[in-house]
Amino acid sequence: MSELFSHLKAYRKECVLGPLLKLAEAALELFVPMIVASVIDRGIGLGDRGYILRMSLVLVALGLLGLIFSVTAQYFSARAAVGFVTRLRHALYAHIQGFPYATLDRIGIPTLITRMSSDMNQVQTGLNLTLRLLLRSPFVVFGAMIMAFTIDSTAALWFVAAIPLLALVVFGVMLLTMPMYRGVQEQLDRVLGTTRENLNGVRVLRAFRKEAAEQQRFEEQNRLLTALQQRVGRVSALMNPVTYVIVNLAVVALIRTGALRVNAGLLTQGAVVALYNYMSQILVELIKLANLIINVTKSLACAKRIQSVLEIQDREQITEGLPGGDPALRVELDRVSLRYPGAAGDALESVSLRAEAGQLIGVIGGTGSGKSSLVNLIPRFYEATEGRVLVDGVDVRGMDPRVLRRKIAVVPQKATLFQGSIRENLLWGEEEASDELLTRAVQAAQAEEVVAAKGGLEGEIEQFGRNLSGGQRQRLTIARALVRQPEILILDDSSSALDFATDAALRKALGQLPQRPTIFLVSQRTTAVRGADQILVLEEGRVAGQGTHEELLESCPVYREIHQSQFRKEAAQ
């Protein structure tokens, strides 16, 4: 937890002033029963109206001063809590951004979202309450007991009996509920994961009429979450009634003892009222403390979940002293294999490829053959489990990931655009790009009509590009990659929504790019890769063939089958 709370260092002043001001308010509150007792014994008992008026003004002054202390303490506590969580959220977000894809796959996106949002909010609430009440409530409890002893030590013994019992109840409930709250948060992760899957795949669900089945699965996950919350709620709910019972029994015993001692002339009526007020203060503060402990228990469970993510040290390390390759080759894959974490077998097995600068490399194969896995190794999104991946003759494990990815532009299978203008989306490729460069990229990506239809580069794009068709989104994501002017361009089946004429025009434009990048074109169409300098055919993660279009038609049955399935008439001729 030390790493977690190191972000509080910037708010040392607020963390000190907030509790101190609450203690000052509590100290003023402890004087109130004594003043009320003196008003009863002296002012009312002796009929001294002037004294009653003076003491009433003192009570008003104490109330106003306590209000000032309380509001100021709340300000400092809120400032520290909000500032701390803001810094922590930024640190967690930056930490997650550095995770390799394999780590993100292993942890899961839903649980990371929960920790960035729900857990953070709970930690903020817990810290705010802690700064305000953690010192105040025990101070009032023990301060009231001490003040009771100054009034009458015999009656005050009931305080000594009640406080340990109350502490036993409070801390017993805390120890029981802490692991339960962790279970609740983990089940909440599962509910969010189910919700995210259903929302992302809503079209597929409707297409296969799986709404009822997914609704049933969602309801089952919610039932489990509800059961866990009810179980922890039942335990937590015991705290208030049990503390009420103990305190009220102590109040009954206190009033009986006080009445006997007043009757014996050993205690005044005002003193009994003061003792009762102190017991009431203890009741109120212990209820606050009980609620604080429940919130702190939740917050500690959430803080541990956040800390567990911060403790993950998976990073793309730079390994020095790795053997190099041929610097004349832009990309070289040397007997590369890849196995995803937890997978039973390899996604890629002993794949080799040599690509020179300016070459067009086609990658083709059936669904699940490992095409995307292959191109994801080049920018080191995933680490090869065997073999080497070299860029410009340097093993990617020995390169700074930022330097490596500065050379590469990737257009993934799913075209993702962000809310904002077309210009803002294109500038993700290169922040300092000129309008001339943006225009050239748009032209090369065959996206001129898309930009024109939206009113130019300032045209608005909705989140995820919802106001565009699939082909329009793909063309703009390709344009964004071209703005980067990369040395290596990876198009991972990123033109699947384009018609044949637009796809052909796009390939022609890519071949005429002035910087002559090495292009990896992943596709399931043989028309898309037939003009490539090399075509790599994959089948179940293995190389089924390698060569030009004509060579593969002659020598590779897998490629020939793919081609004939798409051009049966041409093949028949």
Task: Describe the structure in your own words.
The chain has 573 residues and is an alpha/beta fold. The protein has 2 domains: 2-310, ABC transporter transmembrane region fold, CATH 1.20.1560; 321-407 and 492-498 and 522-573, Rossmann fold. 64% of the residues lie in helices and 11% in strands. It is built from 23 helices and 12 strands. The strands form 3 sheets. Strands 6-9-10-3-11-12 form a 6-stranded mixed β-sheet, with helices on both faces. Strands 2-1-4-5 form a 4-stranded antiparallel β-sheet, with helices on one face. The protein has a two-stranded antiparallel ribbon with strand order 7-8. β11 and β12 form a beta hairpin. It is elongated and about 115 Å long.
Structural class call reads alpha/beta
Task: Show unreliable segments.
Answer: 569-573
Shape: elongated
Q: Any idea what the radius of gyration is?
A: 35 Å
How many β-strand stretches? Answer: 12
What fraction, in percent, of the residue positions are helical? Answer: 55-70%
What do we call the CATH topology of the largest domain?
ABC transporter transmembrane region fold
User: What is the fourth-level CATH superfamily of the largest domain?
Assistant: ABC transporter type 1, transmembrane domain
- Give the distance, in angstroms, between the N- and C-terminal Cα atoms: 72 Å
- Give the CATH class of the largest domain: Mainly Alpha
The main β sheet shows up as: 6 strands, mixed
Query: Which strands sit side by side, in order, in the main sheet?
Result: 6-9-10-3-11-12
Q: Helical stretch count?
A: 23
> Judging by the overall fold, what is the CATH architecture of the largest domain?
Up-down Bundle
